Amino acid sequence: MNFIEGGVCAAKGFKAAGIHVGVKTNNKNKKDLALIVADVPCAAAAVYTKNVVKAAPLLVTKAHLADGKARAVLVNSGNANACAPNGEAHAIASCKAAAEALDISASDVIVASTGVIGQELPVKVITDGIPELVSKLSTNGSPDAAAAIMTTDTVMKECAAEFDIGGKTVLLGGIAKGSGMIHPNMGTMLCFLTTDCAISAEMIRKALLEAVTVSFNRISVDGDTSTNDMCALMASGLAGNAPIVSENDDYRAFVAALKDICIKLAITMAADGEGATHLITCTVSGAADEQAAETLSKSVISSTLTKAAIFGADANWGRVLCAMGYSGVAFDPDAVSVAFESAAGRIDVCKNGRGLPFDEALAKKILTEHDITIDIVAGNGPGVCTCWGCDITYDYIKINGDYRT
Amino acid sequence: MNFIEGGVCAAKGFKAAGIHVGVKTNNKNKKDLALIVADVPCAAAAVYTKNVVKAAPLLVTKAHLADGKARAVLVNSGNANACAPNGEAHAIASCKAAAEALDISASDVIVASTGVIGQELPVKVITDGIPELVSKLSTNGSPDAAAAIMTTDTVMKECAAEFDIGGKTVLLGGIAKGSGMIHPNMGTMLCFLTTDCAISAEMIRKALLEAVTVSFNRISVDGDTSTNDMCALMASGLAGNAPIVSENDDYRAFVAALKDICIKLAITMAADGEGATHLITCTVSGAADEQAAETLSKSVISSTLTKAAIFGADANWGRVLCAMGYSGVAFDPDAVSVAFESAAGRIDVCKNGRGLPFDEALAKKILTEHDITIDIVAGNGPGVCTCWGCDITYDYIKINGDYRT
């Protein structure tokens, strides 16, 4: 599999666009409405937030995807349409307006929203903007669509790859957003993927679950799981491969590529955590099993104290052990080793549960790099897992202290 | 029950002291060693952190309290003696030094530490300081002891009360510390309580569990549960009441007072959260049962996004619903109401899961007060619970970005 330039229009049969229509009232230069359209009917599936409070567009999308088919994705930023008056009616009206303009069925539209919770969606602003949005659709529209789904994101998140299935080149790509409200249980993160692979909706759903489990569910920015999370995939089938309808070798090749794409987008999200100045990669090995390793690793990257220490370039490994200790996983503290690593080097700070003397100046140098790895050996079990997070900074507080205005 | 002035020396038969011996190397004006001593043998019990990683002094104290008896409490701040070389040996040596100076058995000493994890305890500094510490013991020593167990605390935490048991006046008081690393599962918080009530060690343990459950386990500062948490109670029996050896009316009167004292100390801790500018009281009613109400309330006060919104005096109730939604408790989002309240007034912001129009200026005024209440109705069940937390601020990041130096 090779990563290539591109995003949601990399695969054959997809166009996209993104414009400003006015959902974001405070900045006319910020795009706030995105559309992705397939030339042909697509097999499609999505996974959603596990939050009990679910935004209206998720409920509408779930109904629309019941038949495993879709043609378009309509997304606004600036308003979450969650816990807000007339939420479902507005989501449905948005789908209808897009469907009419595209001459497709409203039930083939995937709809999503991200932004402030609890305020009524300005649905007229959206429906009025759809003709212009449709007029801008192009195979070069992925960056505009990626920009239009951003909220506090500082970096546009696009990714694409090509790989072979049965001798045919298959393309897979996507756009994503996510910065705050991110946590292992799919926390607002939105991700829209397209592929020209011929694959059934049922296999897409299975593949998505497999990929999300090892990517978006292994990142955390702040422990808050959003009401609006969604990851959707549409497959146009134009690659010409033999349709994937069971978990055969072709399916496994597709899942492998999907995992790589999702992991790459997930890491971009973690690195773009609100206010973050460091990407933290935490690898736990030697745990009882993969699940135990994942829980330990997630606990470390979710620890506010560890995140604050990394912000301060402070090799405070005691907080790493502390976070492992309250994770709920059983392990022998006296068997734990911890090292910090970056482009500037590696330093072992704890062995068999006890502190090692280390060069504070070197530790500072290592932790001043942007990309930090916390390498943990939790025992001598077979379980290994890597999770990704970021530091917590003054800017995180600033961004979230007054988000609505 | 009446709250009275005083702390750990309020009850008959207790002396205390606190001095600087040098565990805190960076500031000679900061006390770092505390001692509480009973004139007579005491029934005693303690509860400990649930963190898998337990500090050495906890293990030593657990062994010492196996017989339900104690005479003294020795506590240092500035070093946690957790994950550090020779941890248990140093904790035992500290107990021995105190026991020799006091002419009691080393196994009657409760020992605790709080501070940086992973550095070897400077045991000689402690043992060398014990003679001076013992010479300072007095019935006025509670404030000094309270000061000597502080780390990043900005406020000394003392509390005492008097109440009647069988016509006898009983005194109960304590000192506590806790600011960072605080989370519902007793997260370093230390609390040392003394009473002159005649009560068995078994009943003390039961009473402590009851009281801790509704006090320290219902506060959160940052979701990090420490390796060093401990709450211990010694009873001198000098009040002259009929000894409490079963869960009778006297026991219930004692527990009621203990709960009040622990809740008061717990609220002081939450209000003194690292860098905090607001105390947040979150009351959930209408939940399925008390446990559900507690989980919902804890999820709200633990939500980094909600904490950041309160810091910014932003009535962002969507984050409150979001935090309830990922708490793991089942509830009907369409039945939820939310209001913000303080000395400046009350404002209803959400009813039946939908936003209400509200006066932003009044909301700002309400949320600018120090003490904020989030009042949530989660449905029409009988479950009610109140938890306490604080906002997250620039200073929290500053304090924790470079804690070790």
How would you characterize the overall build of this protein?
The structure is a homodimer of 405-residue chains. Chain A is α+β, with helices and mostly antiparallel strands and 405 residues long. Helix content of chain A is 32%, strand content 29%. Chain A contains eleven helices and 16 strands. In chain A, the strands form two sheets. In chain A, strands 1, 2, 3, 4, 5, 6, 7, 8 and 10 form a nine-stranded mixed β-sheet that branches. In chain A, strands 9-16-11-15-12-13-14 form a seven-stranded mixed β-sheet, sandwiched between helices. In chain A, helix 1 packs across helix 2, helix 5 (201-213) crosses helix 6 and helix 7 (290-302) crosses helix 9 (317-325). The mean pLDDT of chain A is 91. Chains A and B meet through helix 8, helix 9, strand 14 and helix 11 of A and helix 8, helix 9, strand 14 and helix 11 of B.
What would the keywords be for this entry?
405 residues; homodimer; L-amino peptidase D-ALA esterase/amidase; 7-stranded mixed β-sheet; alpha+beta; Ubiquitin-like (UB roll)
CATH superfamily of the largest domain in chain A: L-amino peptidase D-ALA esterase/amidase
User: Element order, helices and strands of chain A?
Assistant: EEEHEHEHHEEEHEEHEHHHEEEHEEH
Determine and state the CATH class of the largest domain in chain A: Alpha Beta
Main interface: chain pair and counts: A-B, 67 and 68 residues
> What overall form of chain A do the CA principal axes indicate?
globular
Strand content of chain A: 25-35%
The computed structural class of chain A is alpha+beta
The total count of helices of chain A amounts to 11
| CATH topology call of the largest domain in chain A | L-amino peptidase D-ALA esterase/amidase
CATH architecture of the largest domain in chain A: 4-Layer Sandwich
Mean pLDDT, all residues of chain A: 91
Major sheet of chain A: 9 strands, mixed
Which spans of chain A have pLDDT < 50 for at least 5 consecutive residues? none
Rg of chain A, Cα atoms, Å: 22 Å
Distance between the termini of chain A: 44 Å
Tally of individual domains of chain A = 2
According to DSSP, the number of beta strands of chain A is 16
